[in-house]
Amino acid sequence: MRESILGGPFTFPGTDMTVQRMGYGAMQLAGPGVWGPPNDLKNAEAVLREAVESGINHIDTSDFYGPHITNQIIRQALHPYRAGLVIVTKLGARRPPDKSWQRANSSEELTAGVYDNLRNLGLDAIDIVNYRVVGSGHGTEEGSISEQVTALAELKHKGLIRHIGLSNVTATQVTEAQKITEIVCVQNLYNLAHRQDDLLIDDLARQGIAYVPFFPLGGFTPLQSSTLSEVAQRFNATPMQVALAWLRQRSPNILLIPGTSSLIHLRENLAAVELTLSTDALTELDGIATAIADH
Ligand SMILES: NC(=O)c1ccc[n+]([C@@H]2O[C@H](COP(=O)([O-])OP(=O)(O)OC[C@H]3O[C@@H](n4cnc5c(N)ncnc54)[C@H](OP(=O)(O)O)[C@@H]3O)[C@@H](O)[C@H]2O)c1
């Protein structure tokens, strides 16, 4: 029953892949610092199983979560995968033993990364691979990505990848990539408090391309705002449910992948699809980013 109401369907452009707009981000399933196994492996598997049993058919992951461990948990919990489940992974980084996040974007590294994902997820082909740009600092950084996107297009041609997306990119990089291959989704940092991609979201919406915000709840620094708390209280919801509802109402091409290692939070996040915010509440919430920008 839930499947019909998980935010409604979205079809990635030029594909036959349709997902519910409420998905699941698997990064929180690894151990602390996205490193090593979780404290409670059985719980991690239970979260994944309940997500899929509740109708979620879009899981975002990466082989650099753990590293490798999150994908192995997904395989252990969900393989053989149910028909229609879309698993999206990302390439472009590696995790050396010091637990840092380093660039890994040569053609050889991207190819090896695809094979790692295939092996750890137990797949013959990956539904969608995002090329994740790792710059010198946090956030996006201009610079050509044509070499990496060309490498992914070749892996698609070989049948190892079905579709290609981008992550942590600028509008210029999206345009550059689209000249090489079809881009079906863009995954960037965006939430109530971080609105730098407003124009990009609208542009992608016009093209039917999915925009998948990472850190939809604030990531490692959960969203906190008195306005958010007040609106949540008025709607008899939690602040995180309001943050998700705001994203869903922001644009029809936004797909949600909140990350959680908790069954209770998973259920709360799923229930957020039933929350519809009034125009007045949306305007109030829009003020959060404006207040940060003015500060
Ligand atoms: N492309 C990229 O570079 C990139 C970067 C980061 C993340 N991602 C993807 O985006 C997904 C989402 O991002 P994220 O997981 O980092 O951050 P997030 O979804 O913004 O927030 C996750 C945090 O919120 C907590 N949380 C989740 N649901 C909650 C609820 N209902 N109430 C209170 N707290 C709640 C989680 O803790 P609990 O575990 O305790 O629930 C966790 O600490 C990731 O899982 C990953 O797949 C991609």
- Determine the mean pLDDT: 96
Shape: globular
Q: What small ligands are held by the chains?
A: NADP nicotinamide-adenine-dinucleotide phosphate
Compute the number of helices.
Answer: 10
CATH class call:
Alpha Beta
- The CATH superfamily name is NADP-dependent oxidoreductase domain
User: Spans with pLDDT under 50 lasting ≥5 residues?
Assistant: none
| Biggest sheet overview | 7 strands, parallel
Please state how the strands of the largest beta sheet are arranged side by side. 3-4-5-8-9-10-11
Radius of gyration, CA atoms, in whole angstroms:
18 Å
CA(first)-CA(last) distance = 45 Å
Number of domains: 1
Could you describe the 3D structure shown?
The chain is 39% helix and 14% strand. The chain is α/β, with parallel strands linked by helices and 295 residues long. The protein has one domain (2-219, 252-260): TIM Barrel (Alpha-Beta Barrel). A 7-stranded parallel β-sheet has the order 3-4-5-8-9-10-11, with helices on one face. A two-stranded antiparallel ribbon has the order 1-2. It has a two-stranded antiparallel ribbon with strand order 6-7. Helix 4 (146-157) links the parallel strand 8 and strand 9 (161-167). The chain is globular, with a radius of gyration of 18 Å. The mean pLDDT is 96. NADP nicotinamide-adenine-dinucleotide phosphate binds at residues 25-28, 60, 90, 132, 167-168, 187, 214-219, 222, 238, 240, 257-262, 265, 268-269. Residues 25-28, 60, 90, 132, 167-168, 187, 214-219, 222, 238, 240, 257-262, 265, 268-269 line the site of NADP nicotinamide-adenine-dinucleotide phosphate (NAP).
